[in-house]
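User: quick one - fold this with guanosine-5'-monophosphate bound?
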Amino acid sequence: MKTDPNCIFCKIVAGELPKFKVYEDENTLSFLTIEPMSKGHTLVIPKEHVPNVFETSPDTWSLAQETVRKVAHAVEKAMQADGVNINMNNREHAGQVVDHFHIHIIPRYKGDDLQHWPTRKIAAGEGDEISTKISSTL
Ligand code: 5GP
Ligand code: ZN
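Assistant: Sure. Structure tokens for the protein plus guanosine-5'-monophosphate:
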């Protein structure tokens, strides 16, 4: 399995740093973040060192997503939350601080003061142009 000796999450996987563990299986690990956005904010990671979505194999991706699904159910139920946000930051300018693939499960509570990202209306002509650009790159 790929590991990075300088990676904080690899150290958590190896048991070299403490964690508040929520779930573990052969390939994935889930634990509480140390800086929660809300009570019960949980992370899911693959055990192997993979920096982000762009460098993840389909298998690793699928295994992590299945753990996210399981843990999301548990987080919502255990915390008596009213929903969850599931988020992944990829690369520095998308807000990624720890370069080991991780998915945030953030419980939401009715009346909490967390804000959603601002949006705008799609501009005329933009839809055709952008969807064509993306689909032709796939
Ligand atoms: P990012 O901004 O990279 O998507 O999120 C990094 C996440 O990792 C944040 O939720 C941050 O609080 C969490 N984090 C950073 N260092 C540690 C650590 O040593 N232990 C734990 N449990 N979480 C950490
Ligand atoms: Zn790592």
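One thing worth noting: The chain has three helices and five strands.
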